[in-house]
């Protein structure tokens, strides 16, 4: 059975989520208080609904308790964001991810049970910073304050060497969990897999270990 998603709030962030779900052919219900936004995304969402009042009854009538994953994105409307989060958790939705407008909003959402708080601007700033300070890093995803997943380009220094030869885990403390090469992705590559110059290496580990690998290993 396919997962069912609901996006509540169709601003820039919520609307972008709906567009991505549409591209991935995932079932998504889109909800907003504005009829203009509802009309904008009704061709992309499985169901697109205008909902002027946020309440337990209105959410239940839409069948939201059957959703697997909910995203709440109300921009700077902190009150609506908090109310929607509380109702969704009361309905028993296992995963409720909420966009926060600032750190205060983030702390409140965490206290009322949001499963994940998203801070798009801050998250994107980190990814951009990691990218521009390094010639080899393509992308960075934060897993925690200390850990991340990084995409980096293999240089001629590691060309035609196997993962066993490089022994990255022992030398640097991080792990290559995937290799992208000419449209192909090798997931969990074996120890005898050769790395080629220009490969995109997907590396996971502590940030300090990843940086050390980038500086000394690549």
TrEMBL record:
GO terms for biological process: potassium ion transport. Pfam families: TrkA_C, TrkA_N. Gene3D superfamilies: NAD(P)-binding Rossmann-like Domain, Regulator of K+ conductance, C-terminal domain. InterPro entries: NAD(P)-bd_dom_sf (IPR036291), RCK_C (IPR006037), RCK_C_sf (IPR036721), RCK_N (IPR003148), Trk_Ktr_HKT_K-transport (IPR050721). It comes from the Bacteria. GO terms for molecular function: monoatomic cation transmembrane transporter activity. Residues 2-118 form the RCK N-terminal domain. Residues 135-218 form the RCK C-terminal domain. This is Potassium transporter Trk.
């Amino acid at each position: 059975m396919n997962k069912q998603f609901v996006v509540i709030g169709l601003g820039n962030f919520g609307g972008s989520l709906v567009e991505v779900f549409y591209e991935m052919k995932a079932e998504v219900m889109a909800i907003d208080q504005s009829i203009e936004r509802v009309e904008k995304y009704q061709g992309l969402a499985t169901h697109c609904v205008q909902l002027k009042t946020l309440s337990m009854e209105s959410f239940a009538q839409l069948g939201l308790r059957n959703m697997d994953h909910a995203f709440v994105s109300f921009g700077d409307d902190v009150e609506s964001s908090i109310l929607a989060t509380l109702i969704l958790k009361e309905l028993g939705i296992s995963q409720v991810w909420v966009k926060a407008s600032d750190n205060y909003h983030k702390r409140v959402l965490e206290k009322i049970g949001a499963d994940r708080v998203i801070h798009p601007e801050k998250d994107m700033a980190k990814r951009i910073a990691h990218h521009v300070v390094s010639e080899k890093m393509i992308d960075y995803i934060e897993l925690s304050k200390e850990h991340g997943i990084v995409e980096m380009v293999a240089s001629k220094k590691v060309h035609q060497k196997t993962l066993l030869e490089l022994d990255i885990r022992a030398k640097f403390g991080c792990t290559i969990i995937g290799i992208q090469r000419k449209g192909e992705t090798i997931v969990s590559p074996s120890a005898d897999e050769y790395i080629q110059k220009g490969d995109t290496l997907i590396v996971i580990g502590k940030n300090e270990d990843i940086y050390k690998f980038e500086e000394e290993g690549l």
